[in-house]
Automatic annotation (TrEMBL):
InterPro entries (UniProt xref): HIRAN
Ranges of residues in domain HIRAN: 555-651
Organism: Tepidimonas taiwanensis
Region (Disordered): 1-20, 510-532, 660-683
Pfam families cross-referenced by the UniProt entry: HIRAN
GO molecular function list: hydrolase activity, acting on acid anhydrides, in phosphorus-containing anhydrides; nucleic acid binding; zinc ion binding
Keyword Hydrolase belongs to the record: yes
Domain of life: Bacteria
UniProt key word DNA-binding: no
Protein name, entry field: HIRAN domain protein
Keywords, comma-separated and alphabetical: Hydrolase, Metal-binding
Amino acid sequence: MERVLKLPSASSDHAVTPPPAVQQQGVRARLWVPADMLFVRESAQAYAWLWLLRADGALRVWRLPRASLGEDERLVELAWRADDDPVNDTWRLPLAPVVPVPRWSVSWGHPMARAAQAFAAALDGAVLDTLGGLEQGGAYFGCAENYSRLAVLSPTVRAHRLQALALFPPLVAPLLLLCPERAEVLDPPSADDPPPGWHASPEVLDAIDRGRDLVGALARYWGVTRGVVRLPLMRQPWRTLPIPRKWLWLLDALPAHARPRTEADWQAWESHLRAVPVRWRSRSDADWVARGLGPDPAALWGALQQRWPHLGLALRDAWDFLRAAHAHAVQRGGVSVLPDAGELGLAWMARWGLRRLLAASQRWHETPVVDRFQPLPRPADETASLAAVEPVIGHWRSALGEAEELTTADALRAEGEAMRHCAADYWSDCAWEGMRFFRLQATNGERATASFELDADAEPPLYEWHDCRGPRNAPACDTIQALAQQLEEALNAEATMAVRRRLAQAVRAQRSQSRALVPQPTPDPIRPLDRQSEQELQGALAFWSAHAPAGPGLGRRLRTAVAGLLYRPGRYCLARLGVGDAVRLVREPDNPHDPLAVRIDWGDVTLGYIPRRVNRDVAAALDAGVPLRAWVDDVDPSLPAHEHVAIVVAWPESTAREGASSRVTVHAPAGRTAPSPVVPNSP
């Protein structure tokens, strides 16, 4: 018998029990919510909301025009409607909370609040408890879509899935549920692009629904041993979901006694692991990272934090050191297959350990800047134009201090020498990408260097605060950071609009050309390596040569993130993508946004595109009939959306550019299909 919900004192707009005729057509409960119960903002007052519970357990939340409030004649249509209705401004909100939460000024005894309580009473309590129990301050699970996925199941299957979620929350939740960062009540997803969800494999679903060997199914799905699945750590909800496979591989590679036991222990590791200056993307890479952490990673993190109190910054700074070490290796030559900077960090860490890598980075950062090599002769006017950039704001002052824009290579180099950090290494980013550095002086006497990156594709183009460091890369004080925030606002003020547009146009124009065909900026100055670091570099390269798999006869390689993933069907395939999976490159010369567009397909699914800033050479190779190969190089949903998936594009050895200095070797995990040749599409 259906529960009859009565709320005598509630207004008709707030009533939960639908009319009998509507109940007979599968609508169990509904709740109309006016805008002023949820929002104060003026833009929301044009809408009304409907929470609607069907008899089969499915929950639907709709945002409608304000005039639709209380239109019960639409309940049946909206209960069973599968898509949005843009013409009538009617949108389904899959990420809305399962029950509306009135704003704080609506008291607990208000009719609206009591109506929400009555609506909640009609929901499945076990499902609500399970979803709420998964939340630990990270992903938001209590949305309408997640509730519906579980509530519509048969009682037996629902019980099994709730049990699996309770037993292994971090391993099962990303496979059965959406993992959004927050609820969304105001802005609907686009009509053809609902929120992404990870989906369990048939083997995992069968193990859950039939009560079979779930530990084994999860171990096979995630690519780890049963021991990792049985860890106490896997019995607790995690803040960070979905879990990157490489983290599970690392846990598997560590000795059993060295693995963190609780989610709190893992959180202490996680921020450091994100910043470790290596690029690891396969099971064998995780073995190298585990080797670099030593027999007692927890003790290592403690020792590192004691030596480098701002450990996250020290790890981040090591990337600059590795790029410099890679440049030295390129100049010296003699290595047939040279790792890139991220792979060099992986080899350095595996050979010498993370502590020695950070120590080498610290020594390098404290070494004075020298010129890497003399620039090639070029016309005086070209050299002058590339030795200085157009100022965006010049000198700027506020109540907190003042800032001086560094618009010449000499000024940037002098700042790096004075502050004993590596700002000078970023001159090419200033010349090519519109990046800007500022010398900051606070009223309290503190000094720092701040950098800002130009988003040339935004409309209008905007500067974003990138970093702010004091002497010897020390963190900036609170006053300096507040000054940098004010400077960011000044850089994006209306007065700088014309300059930002000119710089953005120049950046976009540069991206459409090959750098080999246009004048190069003065090479970035770098620091030399000391004798100990030179020896360690040799050892890391030797370790790489001895242990890295041989390349499949390929020459030049390009590693890049997949652009536009969030707007393509590939966003639904993250759980099934694997390192080493072949992808196909397809030219789109008639693309209205970019005539050099190169689409990336995984089977019959479009993942996205090669980013504009690096697609020229790939497009030219495909147009010329060069048999490029391409494959997935990394899948990490924990990274920002534009970095979820990375691929490698490889040219045949015979077409490698003359003088190419660096090639990347990719680890293909066992069981994956080897990268296959790509048949180029002619325009």
